[in-house]
Structure prediction request, 414 residues.
Amino acid sequence: MRRSVLAAASALAIAGASLAQAGPQAEVLHWWTSGGEAKSVAVLQQEFSANGGTWTDMPVAGGGGDAAMTALRARVLSGNAPTAVQLKGPAIQEWYEEGVLANISAVAEAEGWDKVLPASIAAHMKCEGQWCAAPVNVHRVDWLWANAEILKANGIEMPTSWDEFNAAADKLQAAGVIPLAHGGQAWQDATVFEVVALGILGADGFQQAFVDLDPAMLASDKMVAVFDQMRKMRGYVDSNFPGRDWNLATSMVMNGEAAFQIMGDWAKGEFLAAGKVPGQDFLCASAPGAGFLYNVDSFAMFDVAGDDKQDGQALLAKLIVGQNFQKVFNLNKGSIPARVDVPMEEFDSCAHLSAADMTSSSKDGTLLPSYAHGMAMRGAQSGAITDVVTAHFNSDMSSKDAVAMLVDAVANSL
Ligand code: BGC
Prediction:
């Protein structure tokens, strides 16, 4: 009897101790599941564990994060929000307005985020003046990636205009090479579309169309020209493109099956994870046109009960904006740090080009938010635009009809 009471008491003591030692907890919802992405998020997981945290991983596969956002909505509606969520752009403010985000201002103020983050990035992380998200990086979207050997073998330089791109693509096609690696998923169509739009509309035109949603620019002849170029792009992809994941398209460029890919610099994370060297195995250049389309990944903390979870949120937020994490994570991810004071010596030539172009675009007013990656407008509007882009890409719709549909879709979404 006595022995069993003692045993029960010591079992309780052990349970109590392990509860007391539970420490910071975080269930983290993200969509970083490709080779380069998984390597990058592992950096955060390791830092979190090294600082006493327990990480529960909730990866939701699907480039661009559409599936992850559907999973998030289901969790929040069932009253069981994850503690930390990969979330970005105006979606952060949309969730804040639903009253479900935690305030992380205490961490941000203690760590002096306002001093180390550019004002344009900090603005995306604030909700009515309080900090509601922590930025991880700056991805650039308007990149052209190429297989170096294929270009050399075909006597092709990196194109600097869409006419040059079309000439290169025609030449490659005649030589039996797939000019453009692409995956037929709505967000990838939107990615190519916005890069083409920046090149053809120019930075001012892009701002008017996709930030101001100005009906005159949406209905313009220049927008017709954007859809004309999209029709050409459709002719440069192989017949197996529907449904293909973006990282498989990147592999096609790596393996020499295709020459180019238009994709944000998470594609560089894939090249690097496969041991490929920029300037040698693959080439990076800003896509034709002037400007810089930015896409800042960030994490928002959801309002959850329990000291262990709230401690986990504070620890995670602190680590995310920490100098070391911003360096190591971004070396793997293909992006550049959001913090301005991270040493860049270990970064490659593509990252240096990105950093230099971001600085100059910021000075000359051509630094623009990516619409395709949820930085420029609310979900209802970007969804309406992407539906038109995809409908046009996957049919023989004329450019004029696409423009008329675009104008209506945006008007109806407001
Ligand atoms: C995210 C990247 C991610 C990419 C592909 C983008 O929207 O910002 O971090 O690697 O989607 O999934």
